[in-house]
TrEMBL record:
<comment type="pathway">
    <text>Cofactor biosynthesis; NAD(+) biosynthesis; deamido-NAD(+) from nicotinate D-ribonucleotide: step 1/1.</text>
</comment>
<keyword id="KW-0662">Pyridine nucleotide biosynthesis</keyword>
<comment type="similarity">
    <text>Belongs to the eukaryotic NMN adenylyltransferase family.</text>
</comment>
<dbReference type="InterPro" id="IPR004821">
    <property type="entry name" value="Cyt_trans-like"/>
</dbReference>
<dbReference type="InterPro" id="IPR045094">
    <property type="entry name" value="NMNAT_euk"/>
</dbReference>
<dbReference type="Pfam" id="PF01467">
    <property type="entry name" value="CTP_transf_like"/>
</dbReference>
<dbReference type="InterPro" id="IPR005248">
    <property type="entry name" value="NadD/NMNAT"/>
</dbReference>
<keyword id="KW-0808">Transferase</keyword>
<keyword id="KW-0496">Mitochondrion</keyword>
<keyword id="KW-0067">ATP-binding</keyword>
<dbReference type="GO" id="GO:0005524">
    <property type="term" value="F:ATP binding"/>
</dbReference>
<feature type="domain" description="Cytidyltransferase-like">
    <location>
        <begin position="9"/>
        <end position="218"/>
    </location>
</feature>
<keyword id="KW-0520">NAD</keyword>
<dbReference type="InterPro" id="IPR014729">
    <property type="entry name" value="Rossmann-like_a/b/a_fold"/>
</dbReference>
<dbReference type="GO" id="GO:0005759">
    <property type="term" value="C:mitochondrial matrix"/>
</dbReference>
<dbReference type="GO" id="GO:0000309">
    <property type="term" value="F:nicotinamide-nucleotide adenylyltransferase activity"/>
</dbReference>
<comment type="pathway">
    <text>Cofactor biosynthesis; NAD(+) biosynthesis; NAD(+) from nicotinamide D-ribonucleotide: step 1/1.</text>
</comment>
């Protein structure tokens, strides 16, 4: 059953971005197209605001610069600075609604479409909020995440039930498997996820790759090689700016 035009949106720290953060877009796109579940017309990487306060979260300007470097070779995935430009942390539901409204207000052309970067920087007050589920040609922004983020839905007090209802009911999510996770079981054991299971697309990543930002940060602060785990330009940027305790004069 086709779900029309889809934009995939990944939220997270991306501190720093790894190859897997971008690889999951490609895996999800192939899966959705091969099963005819919709037409992917774009991808958004939406780094979280500095106020999210996670350990080792370097300033948003650095994270955005690194994501841009990593995305140089992608024609369809873009970084959105919008979350980082708000006055504080924005919940994921609000960010998905903002991006969906912006895209649908700006863009009623045939796929493949993409937006100029500045569209994603429009202020939220400028948006027409009636666009969700309005026109059948509209784009649906779906949350793209790894199975660990799905599992965080069950962390007491972290996500609000209202937000999860909206994300699952109005947008839908695309979950990429991670080693050690069993998202199918997790969905079965959650009443909320089970209720909306037809809006959850489970994608098995058969080329398992457990590179994470944590692993990269560890290598970088120990001045060990992080080559081939993320873009060379990202590694150079980290070293030049001495992020994560790395040193500028290391070349590997
Ligand atoms: N190896 C991976 N396989 C599948 N999904 C992944 C992988 N690494 C990250 N993701 C997903 O990317 C998104 C952004 O994650 P995040 O920025 O927390 O990355 P991370 O590498 O897990 O970070 P950290 O190590 O700092 O916790 C999340 O949805 C997360 O599940
Ligand atoms: O919207 C929410 O209620 C919510 C609750 C917890 C986490 N999130 C988002 O999930 C992402 C978690 O990123 P990370 O790096 O901690 O895995 C980040 O983008 C947060 O804004 C969102």
């Amino acid at each position: 059953m086709s779900q029309g035009k889809i934009v995939l949106m990944a939220c997270g720290s991306f501190s720093p971005p790894t190859y897997m953060h971008l690889r999951m877009f490609e895996i999800a796109k192939d899966y959705i197209h091969s099963l005819g579940l919709g037409v992917i017309v774009g991808g958004i990487v939406s780094p979280v605001h500095d106020a999210y306060g996670k350990k080792d979260l370097v300033a948003a300007n650095h994270r955005i610069a690194m994501i841009r470097l990593a995305l140089r070779s992608s024609s369809w995935i873009k970084v959105s600075e919008w979350e980082t430009q708000q006055s504080g942390w924005t919940r994921t539901r609000a960010s998905m609604q903002y991006h969906q409204n912006t895209i649908n207000t700006a863009n009623n052309t045939d796929p493949p479409i993409w937006l100029p970067d500045d569209i994603l920087n429009v202020k939220i007050e400028d948006q027409n909020s009636n666009h969700i589920n309005g026109n059948s040609e509209d784009v649906t922004v779906k949350l793209l995440c790894g199975a660990d983020l799905l599992e965080s839905f069950a962390t007491p007090g972290l996500w609000s039930d209202d937000d999860l209802e909206a994300i699952l009911g109005r947008h839908g999510i695309v979950v990429v498997s991670r080693a050690g996770s069993d998202p199918g079981r997790f969905i079965y054991e959650s009443d909320m996820l089970y209720k909306y299971r037809k809006n959850v697309i489970l994608v098995t990543n058969y080329i398992v790759n457990e590179v994470s930002s944590t692993v990269l940060r560890r290598l970088l602060r120990r001045n060990e090689s992080a080559k081939y785990l993320t873009d060379d330009n990202v590694i150079s940027y980290v070293r030049q700016n001495q992020l994560y305790g790395s040193k500028a004069n290391v070349t590997k």
